[in-house]
Amino acid sequence: MAGLKLVNVNKVYPNGFHAVHDMNLDIQDNEFIVFVGPSGCGKSTALRMIAGLEEITSGEIYIEDRLVNDVSPKDRDIAMVFQNYALYPHMTNYENMAFGLKLRNMPKKEIDQRVQNAADILGLQELLKNKPKELSGGQRQRIALGRAIVRDPKVFLMDEPLSNLDAKLRVQTRAEISKLHHRLKTTFIYVTHDQTEAMTMGTRIVVLKDGHVMQVDTPTNLYEKPANKFVGSFIGSPQMNFIDGVLERSENLLKVSYEGGSVAVSGDREEKLKQNGLEGKKVVMGIRPEHIEVETGEVGDNSSNRALVEVTELLGSETYLFLKLKESTLVARVDPSVKAVVGDWVTIKPRVDRVHFFDPATELSLL
Ligand code: ATP
């Protein structure tokens, strides 16, 4: 078990590319931390610096209060699981799992105990005598996990370990890794570009963009209180809708007006926006698809909040309606009982108590 700390960590590659900017993180024992962000945002670079596989340009990394900047990867007490499993094809699965321990001259008996224990945890007993090529992708990934477990490391590092698995197996293995984390009670750091993986597995998530940390928070807080527009759009599927608007007071109501409609803001949100001096200012509204209510029935040509149904996706338990509101395209997640077909006009009602407001220039949350 170990905590981990990154202090102002930077990575500039020899070609001058600044891949990670001033990364600060304080990870507690037993957390399941996920680094998530689009391709090229620096998540693998950050993980590899923690592993010691990539030199850091400046800053400090501590594992359990020990500065490890100059400690070699094998002495950091971490185990890394890679996307491509990195198993030796000529060895049996048992030998693959035992290999790292053998290199450390561990007694044979202890190696055997550790391999058997990991095989029990992962349900691999039947496969120990086989070679990796005789296994499915999911089984190979379990051997790779087993090889990490036998080391009994302080920290597990995983770089997109599920990306070579098909969709169904990914969901299964995701749950297995979560169970493993509960069972081992060790710190996990997991890299993925998939926000669903991040949200379902992480106890805290680090959202990265262009080498910068955008927000570090629990899945619930990231979803409900995104610090900026990027986090709002990256977390959640279908993604958050954005509409440009202006905050205006009329008839003693604070309203946000946007193309094709307006809604009144009240309660805490009104207070907060007022306090921050935002009356009369332009804002970007961020609305989750489930926070757009859709009414079917007669819609007048000039009525406000009028939107055209362009595409419908029926998923069984819910329906996505892709709507055109003047120039904006929106997606609403509605109950299948809402009967709307392509070409219908409907009335949309953003649930203003759940709407997010962002600064159009800085893109930071205004709430
Ligand atoms: P992906 O999901 O595609 O793996 P990532 O978020 O893990 O992306 P990194 O692999 O950390 O991204 O790369 C971050 C940035 O640094 C990318 O723009 C990449 O092109 C660049 N980069 C990575 N390795 C090097 C290198 N050795 N030299 C120069 N630039 C590099």
Automatic annotation (TrEMBL):
Keyword terms of this UniProt record: ATP-binding, Nucleotide-binding, Transport
Respond yes or no to whether keyword DNA-binding is given for this record. no
Q: Name one GO molecular function term.
A: ATP binding
Q: Has the keyword Nucleotide-binding been applied to this entry?
A: yes
InterPro entries listed in its UniProt record: AAA+_ATPase (IPR003593), ABC_transporter-like_ATP-bd (IPR003439), ABC_transporter-like_CS (IPR017871), ABC_transpr_MalK-like (IPR015855), ABC_transpr_MalK/UgpC-like (IPR047641), Mo/tungstate-bd_C_term_dom (IPR008995), NA-bd_OB-fold (IPR012340), OB_MalK-like (IPR040582)
Query: Which residues are in the ABC transporter domain?
Result: 4-235
Q: State the SUPFAM superfamilies in the record.
A: MOP-like, P-loop containing nucleoside triphosphate hydrolases
Q: What is this protein called?
A: Sn-glycerol-3-phosphate ABC transporter ATP-binding protein UgpC
Lineage of the source organism? Bacteria, Bacillati, Bacillota, Clostridia, Eubacteriales
